Amino acid sequence: MDRSRRATNPQNYNDNGTIKKGKKTWNYSNHYKKLKAKHAELCRINATNRRLAINEDVNHLRSIGDVFITEPKNAAKLMKRASKTTVNDKGKINKKKRFGRSIKNRCPDGFQAAVENRFKTSGGTYIEVPNNYRASQYDHTADDYIKKKLSDRMYKLTDGTLVQRDMLFLSKIPASTFLKNVIPSKKMRMKVSVGAAGVILHLILLLLYANNYTGNISLAVLNLIYMILYGGCMKIMV
């Protein structure tokens, strides 16, 4: 198509092959028009297949969980050309192109929007964690942020432990952020926290009774703490 357009419009191109600036008149051959229609049809088919694939993946994700945690959409930033000019080891200038074509073919923002809509309309929870956490770049063994390539999904920590980047990201999300999004009500979050503490203490009491505990801490004191937690939970629920 580009060859045909250049052949029928030589007046619109400079000697070095670039398009001239300003208003131009374009002439298209019948062969070019046929190719353009064929290209439009292929793009339509591609868009339909992409939409069906996205819906299939979204339905699968919804069927295996009620909470979806992700980072904010950033496809627009990944599509931009690199601003800095860099040189590789061979002395050649690196291309400034990034992920424009890949994003066009896969539509990650459309996928994320579909996931958000599906989870919110079906009673699930959709959480976007701010990018400033940089959880996937944090190495807890070195207590420092170590920048990694986008293609590095598996990497070794400073102590040699092999980890998966996305799983490490989930493990570093603060519990407060998770609770705030999953349980919006402050009263309900307090109830969950107190109830969880009561359940843990109740399990401890059962283990102590089962092992005939005779330590310094009286079981009556532990029972009293448990009843206080249980009573607090009941008050919050009212």
Descriptive labels:
single chain, 238 residues, mainly alpha, two-stranded parallel ribbon, two-stranded antiparallel sheet, 53% helix, 8% strand, disordered C terminus
The Cα radius of gyration reads 29 Å
Alpha-beta content class: mainly alpha
Helix content: 40-55%
Distance between the amino and carboxyl termini: 71 Å
Number of helices: 9
Write down the overall mean pLDDT. Answer: 76
Low-confidence stretches: 233-238
Q: Determine the strand fraction and express it as a percent band.
A: 5-15%
H and E order:
HHEHHHEEEEEHHHH
Overall shape: elongated
Instruction: Sketch the major β-sheet.
Output: 2 strands, parallel
Number of strands: 6
- Spatially, the strands of the biggest sheet line up as 1-2
Detailed description of the structure:
This protein has 238 residues and is mainly α. The chain is built from nine helices and six strands; from the N terminus they run ααβαααβββββαααα. The strands form three sheets. The protein has a two-stranded parallel ribbon with strand order 1-2. The protein has a two-stranded antiparallel sheet with strand order 3-4. The longest helix is centred in the first third of the chain and has 34 residues, at 30-63. The N and C termini lie far apart (71 Å). Mean pLDDT is 76; it is low at 233-238.
